[in-house]
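Researcher: Let's continue the batch. This sequence belongs to V-type ATP synthase subunit D, and it's 214 residues. Same format as the previous ones, please.
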Amino acid sequence: MANALNVKPTRMELRNLKKSLDVATRGHKLLKDKQDELMRQFIDLIRQNNELREEVEAQLSGALQNFVLASSLMNQAFIDELVAIPTKEVSLEMHKENIMSVDVPKMQFHYSEEQESENEKFAYGYLNTSSELDEAIETMTQVMPRLLELSEIEKTCQLMADEIESTRRRVNALEYRMIPDTEETIDYIEAKLEEDERSTKTRMIKVKDMGEKA
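Model: Same format as before. Here are the structure tokens for V-type ATP synthase subunit D:
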């Protein structure tokens, strides 16, 4: 329910309130459009996130199964020694991208050097190792960029959800509080000014009649 604002019923206040109502109405439309666009992009990201998560989880599950199988066929200390030394260094570059006034992360892997041959994928020779270990490491290498992409999308979804909630509160504040209260106050001031005008005219008529009788 709208409540009239506590202002003096003057023509100046009426002009100011009408200007405020115009700004609030235009602001409400812009925020509502922003909210709708955020929701559209958010739904698309959620769909991408679900598809990518299923893909990554399937790959990680396969890699884990191969690791378990390799562990059952090989000595664990030997496996730890084989994978202890990385073949190359990996760095992570991260910057921000603005989407509908939301700063979202963008991340990318950078490798210190490119592998020159198929044999350089692993830091060990194929002798005395199982194919399951090779496949597990290969899968993990392939899934890392996808895992990074998944992290990026999930963080973006979180940030956009926060922005949607913030925008929703602002839209509701304008739609259900500020705009109705301002409209109620404008109606009150207009009615008050009309009443004062009628009272003034009535007094003038009485003064005129009294003057004519005198």
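Researcher: Any comment?
Model: The helical segments are 11-73, 76-82, 131-213.
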